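Sequence in, structure out. First:
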Amino acid sequence: MRGRGPAARTGEIVESLEASLTFDDNRLASLVFGQYDQNVAHIERRLDVVATALGNHLVIKGSPEAAEKARKVFERLYARVRASGTALTLGDVDGAIQETTQQGTLFPAAEVSAEPDRPVFDQIATRRRGAVRARNPAQDAYIKLLRTRELVFAEGPAGTGKTWLAVGHAVSLLEQGHVERIILSRPAVEAGERLGFLPGDMRDKVDPYLRPIYDALYDFMEARHVDRGLQTGIIEIAPLAFMRGRTLTNAVVLLDEAQNTTSMQMKMFLTRLGENSRMIITGDPSQVDLPPGQRSGLVEAVNILDGVEGIGRVTFRDVDVVRHDLVRRIVTAYESAAHGEHDSDRNPNPRRRPSA
C-alpha cells in the first residue's frame, strides 16, 4: 500500500511504500531476522527503511525504491537460509544488499521480480564450507579471475577477503582434483616489532607468520584433513627464502603479505610457476614493513606486468571491507588521513603564495 510520508521541505510531499512479507517457516524467518532482530536493524540502517518483524511476518516502510530493495534483500536471505539452514552473519546481510543492488543494474526489472533470489555474484564451493558467495562486486571479480587466470594479483586493505577467498579457491581446486597440492608462502617480515630468533624447526618458525592462512584452511577443510595434508606434503609451508631454484607444478601457490617482498624476491617467486599451476599473490600496499627507501616487490610487479596476457589483477577499496563495519570505517579514516598528509606535504601552507 502506498502512502504519503513527511514533507522534506515546505509544500513537498514524499511518497512512501509499505510492503508486507510472510515467510512459510517460523524457524527460518527467525534466522533471517537474526538474534534480537539484529539483521532487521542492520538492513534498516543500510537502506533507510523502517522494518517491523513479528513471528514470520514482516512489514517494511520507506521510499518506494528503498522499501522494494529491502523486500528483495529479505527474500534473498530467506532463500539462502532455506538452502543452508544456518544462521546469517552481518556480512551475509551486506552481501545480499550488494547482490540485490547489482542485480537491479544487470537484469531487467521483470526478470528481477520473477527471480528475486537469482544468484548474481560468483561463488566458491568446498566440502566442509559448502558454497561461499562473493559479498560485493570486487569479490565477484576476484573469484572470476581466480577461475580464469593462471596468475592473479589481489591488492587492498585488511578485511576484504583477499587471503580467505584465495585459500578457499585453492582448497576447491585440490578437492576437485585439478591440482595435487597447495603451497603457502609469505615473507618473514615483522610488522614493526623485533621478534628475534624463534625456536623449533622450519614449520615452527614460519607458523606465526602464516596464522591467517591456517585460520582460512581450517574454515574450508576439516581439521584432520588439514593436519594430514601438512604431514603428507599435500599442503606445504614454503618460506619465501627457500623457493629459489624450484619449479612448482600441479599446485596452487599462494603468496600472502606480498607487499613485504623485495623486487628480487618477487621476480624469483613469479618465475617458479610450473606446468598446470596457479599462482595467487595478495597484499596491502599501504602496509609495507620493508626498511625505508626499499621498494615493494608487489607494487613494482603490478606496474611492470600490467596488461600481460594470462595475468589478472583486482584492487579492493575500503568500501569492500567485509570483516566488520567498524573495520571499514577505520580503514576509511586512515586512508583519509594519509591523503591529507600527502596534500600537506605538497603544499604545507596553501594560503600563502610562494615567494618569487
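Second:
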Amino acid sequence: MMIQHRSRTLAAACLLAATTTMLAASGCAKSETPDNAGDDSSQAAQAAKSPESSSGSGCSLRTYGAPKLDLKDAVVGFSQSEKEANPFRIAETRSIKDEAEKIGVKKLLTTNAQSQLSKQISDIQDMLSQGVQFLIVAPLNSDGLEPAFKAAAAKKVPVLTIDRKVNSTACKDYVAFLGSDFVEQGKRAADAMIKATGGKGEVAILLGASGNNVTTDRTKGFVDQAEAQAPGLRIVARQTGEFARDKGQQVMEQLIQSKPDISAVYAENDEMGLGAVTALKAAGKKPGKDVKIVSVDGTRNAVQALVNGEYNAVIESNPRFGPLAFATAQKFYGGEEIPENVIISDRAYDESNAKASLGGAY
C-alpha cells in the first residue's frame, strides 16, 4: 500500500488521478506533489551509461553499515526539493511513485520542501521519526542537508541522492548519486548553439538557482566549450532565472532593454527558456530566428517549441528516476557495490527529430 498525499493548490490536477487512492494518516509527512505528472513514466526510461562512466569507490551494504532489507516489506521515503510547478519535478515524483507501486513497496512517504532548505531538512527528519527505512532524496542545494543526513545515519537509514549532488561523503552520509553529467550537458548545449548561430553573435546565459552543482556545472560546460570552439560567440550576460519560467521571462525582458544586440540565449533549464520565448515575442522578436534559444531538460513544451520553430535545441535531463533508483536500491540490499556516481544517458532534440520525439518528452 502506498500513502500518497495530494496538493491542495493543485486539486484540479489531482482530479485526473481519481483512480489513485489517497490515505491520510495522523502525523504523516505532508506532500504538496500532484499525482498526475502528465506523462507515462515508462516512456524514455533512464539508462545508466557504461560502467566506465560511473565513478568513485563502491559502496555496499556491509561498508555502509545498514541492516539488510526487503523493499517490499519496507517503508521508503522520497524527499522532493522544489514546487511541482516544474514539469521536471512532476515527472520525477510521478516516476518514483509509479515504480514503488510497481515493485510492491509496502509504504511510500513523500514530501515536498517547496524550495526551502529548512523544510527539506525537517521533512527528512519527520519521515525518519515515522520509521522510514530507506530514503531517496532530490537535494535542493549541494550544501546544507548535513543535519538530515546525520539523522539518517544515526538510524542506519541509507540515503540515495538523485538529480543534484551533495557536498558530503559518499558511503558515509549517502550511498550514491544518480543523475546526469551536467558539465557534459553544458558542452552539448554549446555545440548546439554553435551550430544554430554559426559560431558568432552575443549570447546571454539564464543561470539556474545558485547553491547547487547543476547550475555551476551547466555553466562551466557551456562557457568552456564555447570559448574553445567558437571565439566569435561572445557571452555578454549571465543572470539567474532561478530555474523558473516567470523569472526567466523577467530577466529576458530586462536583457532586451539592456543588451538589445543579444542574438542567442542559453537557458539552463527549459522553463527559463520558455519564459525567454514569451518575452521575445512580446518585444516583437522572433524566438528561434532573431534570437536562437538552446536549453536543458527535455520538457514537452520545449520540444513543442522546437517543432513550432521557436526554439533551436534542447539537451535532455531525464527526470524518470524511479526504475533506476529502485533497481539501485535492490542491488545495494542484494550486497552489490554501488558506484559513488551513477551517470545516466541523456538524448538531445533539434529540428531534425523534435516532431518524431515529442511523445517521449515529459
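Remark: Residues 87-103 form the longest helix (17 residues).
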